[in-house]
Write the structure tokens for this entry.
Amino acid sequence: MMKINKKIAVIGTGYWGRNLVRNFAELGALHAICDENEETVKKQQNTFKVEKAFTDYKKLLTSPEIDGIAIATPATTHFEIAKQVILSGKDIFVEKPLAINLKDAQELIHLAKKHSRILMVDHILQYHPAIIKLKQLIDEGALGKLQYIYSNRLNIGKFRHEENILWSFAPHDISVILSLVGQEPEKVRAFGEAYLQDEVVDSTITHFRFKNRLKAHIFVSWLHPYKEQKLVVIGSNAMAVFDDMNIENKLVLYPHKIDWIKHVPVAEKAEKKIILIDQSEPLKEACLHFISCMETRRTPRTDGEEALTVLKVLQQAQERLDIRK
């Protein structure tokens, strides 16, 4: 493992932020934490032996010891906090989404470039060993021509009120699909419904049409009886399944063939192939990538521009949802 010379602070140590706290602590990079909830801060500080803890994030901005700050606060707060972090001269790691509208995201990208700051967004699946291997297989032509991609990200809870299921769950899958396909969709359609809270959609299906007849869809819901995180890629030569709930076999290749017999397509099934992958934790890999980019000043894999593209697709999907109210 690389020697860590950077000191990181985490703002927001609750539901997801505590995972960032743990990973940066395990990497030996965690210097400070901040959360509005004083009890939460004290608990995290004691658990991970953090040097400094605050309830006001602005106190982090003036610390010369801190090189970078990770933000895991509600999405509606990302823009203002991230802006202050960049202006304070520190590199920044932001949980998805980067912002809740394009204008704010573009301003953050502009500020990061102007002040020569690293800006990385935690589209965590792009740091998952199985997704990295899947992209390699696609780039090598193992699946042939891509024809259809779909993903399911389903669970019961955690219910939110500041953002709907589309903004809470779908950014991960949008980021991955755009990365695998290598292009933005020509058309986006979205369908959903709010069952628990007025105006907060609980379940959505978003359809994408790309060039060359390639299509995809994403099904997300926090009103589902069990947890499922699965991505299926259909190619002309093989099919791949990434199942993040499968502890042992997260990536499987199915080299099925389609034969034409008397002008009728007939499936010729083949034995599945278990694809071996590294067992590293995706979030730890993302944290390491951020630190590495801080050290080398290279552009992160999921930088502001990548996050902006995801945000554009999210906004298109949201507009289609709005039309169907």
Notes: The mean pLDDT is 94. The longest strand covers residues 223-235.
